[in-house]
Amino acid sequence: MIIVDDLRPEIRAWGNNNIITPNLDMLAEKGVSFHNTFSQYANCSPSRISMLTGLSPETTGHTGNLQSKPEFSNHVTLPAHFKENGYFTASIGKVYHDAKDDRASWDYYFDLVGPDKSWTDPSNRWECYADSLNNHLFGFDRPAVEKTDQDLEKYKDYVLCDSAMSLIEKEKDKPFFITVGFRKPHLPFAAPAKYWNLYDRDNISLTEFPLSPEGSDSVIYKWSELASYNYYSSSYKTNNYKNKILNNVKALELRHGYFACVSFIDDLVGMLVRKLEKLDLEKNTIIVVMGDHGYQLGDQQVWGKHTNYYLSTRVPLIIFDPLVAPTKNNSEKYIELLDIYPTLSDLVSLPKPVGLDGKSFITLFHNTDPEGFNSSFSQYCSFQKNTDFTNLMSYAMHTKNYTYIEWQDLEQGYKVVNRELYALTKGTIENKNISLDLEYSAKVTEFSKKINHKFKQYRSKAKKYKNQYST
After folding, report:
1. Crossing angle, helix 44-53 and helix 340-347, to 10 degrees?
2. What is the pLDDT of residue 259?
3. CATH classification of the domain holding 66
4. Over 80: is that where the pLDDT of 137 sits?
5. Who contacts 142 (Cβ-Cβ below 8 Å, separation ≥6)?
6. Is 198 exposed, middle or buried (0-12, 13-18, 19+ CB in 10 A)?
7. DSSP codes of every residue in 163-232
8. Which residues contact 113 (CB under 8 A, 6 or more apart)?
9. Minimum mean pLDDT among 49-53, 253-257, 276-280, 388-392: which range?
10. pLDDT at 383 over 80
11. Domain-located, residue 450
């Protein structure tokens, strides 16, 4: 299972002709692409914990702030479920957000960033620069992009890939559940020069949707991750991201860097697949590739994630099971990362896990139109303190034709303080809030009821979860 940090569905086989991803394309041809997969939360830690526990962030209470992370003492997580059923389990790289999370569920753990060293230690820098000079820069001095001729061994993601290949060879004779977490294309956009050179910047286009949606709320976030890097700290940092639009030169440089990082990770995915083939394991090994949430490259004036919009929450998901002959290679049904845990359990016929919030989508491999897969849900609450939106949680429902977002005040009994409804047509994203249009009042009421029904179910479990699963 390969988790790629900040990877939006930037895959050529998925119709994005500007990107170069031959290895992901190959997996898409052999496996099933789930084109409408959504993360529970457009932020690393809550998204990953939700996926790996099979529990909604609303259930665990982990909603962005790292201090709100749940304990794992009594809850059987995805790797723990495999471990309990005879699998060798391994975590390599950024699987959970933090190295110390759920350590008991792994037989083997390896990362180049960990809790035993200070984050200011150059050898412990999660940013993953290759240039040693950049690794010694902190704060606003750090560059947002890096193009070098350094050897692959200088890049942490390559070292992680190499470690995974060695481990696969070592453990090839036993059932294994090995998870590899790559940190690129997360900022900074640092990749070897050869991947930058795959692209001609003159042929890279800017986003088709550069402006914030009309009538959208400005409470999404006050700043962007991008604003913590050199140049952008003065040119992009703002109390309202809608006040800023990057100049085209810098925007193209960032998009170029992101594409280079995606092609770099694609190459590493290919190395892992070829290792399986060399060891004659490709005939009985399931391969899963996913992002942890979406990403916006200037789309809707956003650089990063931290929204409930389509591009922040939608993720790539490809599953190749050599023992399954799917009805078709593409599914347009709506699923969630929350559903990964029960689905993988079903694919390898493990005992059904209990107490999960997600549901198995194994039927989608053979049934193109099953019931229950027409919408996905996500949520977002800023982890910034002392703002006028600190206590607001936004809940979203994603369907084929609409994105509906409802802002609720957590300190006033989930009182609704704002609504956003966007009509989607093929090839577009959210561009105009129509929630106040009388024509759509019934649709707003329908979606609001569905959101409250869904998340009330999770909240009803939250108290029990706290009592049962915390230490």
Report:
1. 40
2. 98
3. 3.40.720.10
4. yes
5. 127, 134, 188, 228, 229, 230
6. middle
7. HHHHHHHHTTTS-EEEEEEE-TTSSSEEEEHHHHTTS-GGGPPPPS--SPPBT--S-S-S--GGGGSTTH
8. 94, 99, 124, 125, 126, 156
9. 388-392
10. no
11. no
- Residues present in the chain in total: 471
Q: Report DSSP state, residue 370.
A: -
| DSSP state string for 41-70 | BSSHHHHHHHHHHT--HHHH---S-GGGPP
Return mean pLDDT, the chain.
92
The structure tokens listed for 413 are 């009994």
Tokens standing for residue 426: 């093929």
Answer whether residue 183 is part of any domain: yes
Domain span at 89: 2-373
DSSP type of residue 71: P
Asked if residues 303 and 224 have their Cβ atoms less than 8 Å apart, the reply is: yes
Judged by DSSP in three states, 427 sits in: coil
Report the pLDDT averaged over residues 35-47: 96
Indicate if the pLDDT at residue 117 is higher than 70: no
Calculate the CA dihedral of residues 180, 181, 183, 185 and round it to 10 degrees: 80
Bridge-based pairing of strands 108-110 and 88-93 is parallel
Number of domains, the chain? 1
CA distance 24 to 268: 10
Q: Which residues contact 249 (CB under 8 A, 6 or more apart)?
A: none
Token pair for 90? 């391994």
Strands 415-423 and 108-110: unpaired
Report the C-alpha gap between 45 and 41 in whole angstroms. Answer: 9
Residue 439 belongs to some domain of the structure: no
Cα–chain-centroid distance for residue 199?
25
Residue 316, in any domain of the structure: yes
In the structure, what pLDDT confidence band is assigned to residue 471 with cuts at 50, 70 and 90? very low
